Amino acid sequence: MPEAEAAVVTGGGSHAAGPADYERFITLFSPEGRLCQLDYAFNAVKLAGITSVGVRGDDSVYVLTHRKEDKLHDLTTVTHLFAITDRIGLLATGMPGDGRALAHEARNAAAEFRFKWGYEMSPRMLAQWIADRAQIRTQHAQIRPYGVVSMIFGIDEEKGTPELFTCDPAGQFFGHKAASAGLKDREVMNFLEERMKSNPSLSSDSTKALAKLALKHVLQGDFYAREFELGFIKKGDPTVTLHPVKFMRTRRNCILLLMWNLSQRYFPYEVGRKAAEEEISVELCHRKSPSTLMISPFNDT
């Protein structure tokens, strides 16, 4: 018997589905068993041109991402890191607008969960919620998938352990010891697999160093620290800390101010700003040459 042909219903009737139809309709499988619009969503993650990495240690989780710089942008308005609750953070890699919308939905979901049940949503619960929402978006033609891969990191209140998850546009979510997303995710994962194949014990400092080293491995050349964002949470201090970077240049050195970005969902702006000013850490970064001011964000000294 001849194979049944897929049909597409239009205003004038139905016709056999062609290649253009498989690309147009998110709910229509191609003969190869793929959803073309999902493939394009994964491509959108890479086309954003940034790479992110996350590493889970014995008592902490660190995530690090590279962000594109534009001389006319106010860097305080450009971020891929979001505090969902005090104990859960989200790093969105891909289309910035989609990442911001996803973070807003996740905050609402976490707040509703706490209001309904009286305790905080765990990182695993939030990752599953995001994945379920993403999967629903693959079934309805009137909405499109988000072009982001999200990393959810935090401390599980019940277990008291750090957790790291990724969620993708296809509705999948996975727990990780280490993860990467974005333009050079495969190269980062190869590096991390080699470093972690012996299942090493990672302290907080070792976890941070490995995340920095993995990103440095694939990003060649010198970079300004303001081109990166760092987020972490520790078991002993289970509060998500986000470090966007702000620069002040002086004649003889660079002062790197790592500002504590408190979630405005739980703190008024005035209170958050005052608390942030008290948490400033200052590092002096000297010139590499008389004519160039360069800062390596991977230098712990």
Automatic annotation (TrEMBL):
Pfam families: Proteasome (PF00227), Proteasome_A_N (PF10584). Its main location: cytoplasm. Keywords: Cytoplasm, Nucleus, Proteasome. Signal peptide: none annotated. GO terms for cellular component: cytoplasm; nucleus; proteasome core complex, alpha-subunit complex. It is found in: Cytoplasm; Nucleus. GO terms for biological process: ubiquitin-dependent protein catabolic process. InterPro entries: Ntn_hydrolases_N, Proteasome_alpha, Proteasome_alpha-type, Proteasome_asu_N, Proteasome_sua/b, Proteasome_subunit_alpha6. SMART domains: Proteasome_A_N. Residues 22-44 form the Proteasome alpha-type subunits domain. CDD domains: proteasome_alpha_type_6. Belongs to the peptidase T1A family. The 26S proteasome consists of a 20S proteasome core and two 19S regulatory subunits. The 20S proteasome core is composed of 28 subunits that are arranged in four stacked rings, resulting in a barrel-shaped structure. The two end rings are each formed by seven alpha subunits, and the two central rings are each formed by seven beta subunits. The catalytic chamber with the active sites is on the inside of the barrel. The proteasome is a multicatalytic proteinase complex which is characterized by its ability to cleave peptides with Arg, Phe, Tyr, Leu, and Glu adjacent to the leaving group at neutral or slightly basic pH. The proteasome has an ATP-dependent proteolytic activity. This is Proteasome endopeptidase complex. It comes from Oryza punctata.
